[in-house]
Amino acid sequence: MTAAPNVYDAEPIPAEARAEIDRLLASGDLFRYTRPQDAPVALLEQEFAALLGAKYALAVSSCSAALFLSLKALNLPHEARVLIPAFTFAAVPSAVVHADCVPVLVEVGENYRINMGDFAGKLDGSIKAVLISHMRGHTSDMDTIMALCTAHNVPLIEDAAHSLGTTWHNRQIGTLGKIGCFSFQSYKLVNAGEGGILITDDPDLLARAVIMSGAYEENWQKHQGLAEHFAKWQNHLPLYNLRMQNLSAAVIRPQLPLVASRVSQGLANHDYVAGLLNACPVLTVPKPLSPEARAPDSIQFNLPQDWTDAQALGFQTRAMADGVKVQIFGLSQGNARAYWNWKFLAPQPDLPQTRKMLMRAADMRLPARLTCADLDYIASTLIKAAMITAQAPLAAK
Ligand SMILES: *Cc1c(COP(=O)(O)O)cnc(C)c1O
Question: How many CB atoms lie within 10 A of CB 388?
Fold first, then answer.
């Protein structure tokens, strides 16, 4: 019998990174602004912008830092209200709070996508920015979101932390709004341990974000061009020092050429497992919206809404006994993606639709490197656990 695959192990970092890291260690050239030009971080910014088809990029210490700087770069008023989906990672409302703004949570449906009725209703005159988190790469109806943001003259930030390579009408996710933010934390498609990057076509936003990221004095000269924008903002903005260092860029750059194959392999793996799970009468993998081409490295699926919490947890325990670890977002203690655990926010109105989804939505990693035998093992284990749970007499609760 095949053993359960370890879905948490990372892939090795390409060998070119080691040579570059040795070179950097030998010279001690770790700070992005030491050399006048062509520092690894600056080269990463050029390469990433080109890869995504954006004009400018700024590499920083995390995607959370990129989200924070994006909000600051927009120059929003004190305590500006920012719409975010209620299904996201705790780092997102945290970035909003950190930027001195107030998050307003929007309902998310059983297909993990924003409820457009609730979105349209909450996008009133009090909303100063919209921050869309493409959670686990699931893309909401961006046509309607962009049209509503334009109609209300409200800037759109995309949190594409976990969506690198996803497209919407063949456009890269992260290039649809004014600013797009990505993560290089280890569980994302490109792994540097930590790191983030923002992209934009707006030179003034870029200049503001660069300065606030910690381009003190005239270090902005080491970014490409835009002198008049930088000169305008220099010394007028606080420095938050959220820079990326050269070692991170050395780890990231050789992974960029691998993004396309990781995306296609990840999608093939996902769709294979999704097909098997959807053939099981008990499990449902929601379909993407038609303009979306996904880039998943994990799979989400729904357990039946009429199951009790005990049944859902029983399913989880049965899968775990065979070595397949799934989490049900709303049933795992203190889950950072369950909005009721964001106790750092002011008390929020309940969001029954999002709550209902979180209580039955299961999540498991499905990295691109898995073999066909691994995928078969995972799918058959999940199906077996689901069928036994569906047939087992209900535990009284
Ligand atoms: C990982 C993640 C983040 C945070 O990224 P960091 O680089 O760890 O700060 C934010 N949003 C989403 C949707 C994520 O998946």
Answer: 12
Crossing angle of helices 372-391 and 309-321, rounded to 10°: 140
Q: Domains of the chain, with CATH numbers?
A: 16-255 (3.40.640.10), 258-396 (3.90.1150.10)
Residue 378 pLDDT > 80: yes
Site to probe by mutation for ligand 1, drawn from 183, 188, 189, 298 as the one with most ligand atoms within 8 Å of Cβ, is 183
- Over the stretch 329-351, which tens digit does the pLDDT of each residue have? 999 999 999 999 999 999 989 99
Q: Quick: pLDDT tens for 130-159.
A: 999 999 999 999 999 999 999 999 999 999
Task: Return d(Cα 226, Cα 204) in angstroms, integer.
Answer: 8
Residue 47: closest CA among 248, 252, 190: 252
Contact 144, 168 (CB under 8 A): no
Answer whether 0.90 is exceeded by the pTM. Answer: yes
Tokens of 121: 């209703």
Q: Is the CB of 92 under 6 A from ligand 1?
A: yes
Residues 6+ positions from 98 with CB-CB distance below 8 Å:
68
- Inter-residue contact 76 to 205 (CB < 8 Å): no
Nearest to 145 by CA among 105, 183, 117, 109: 117
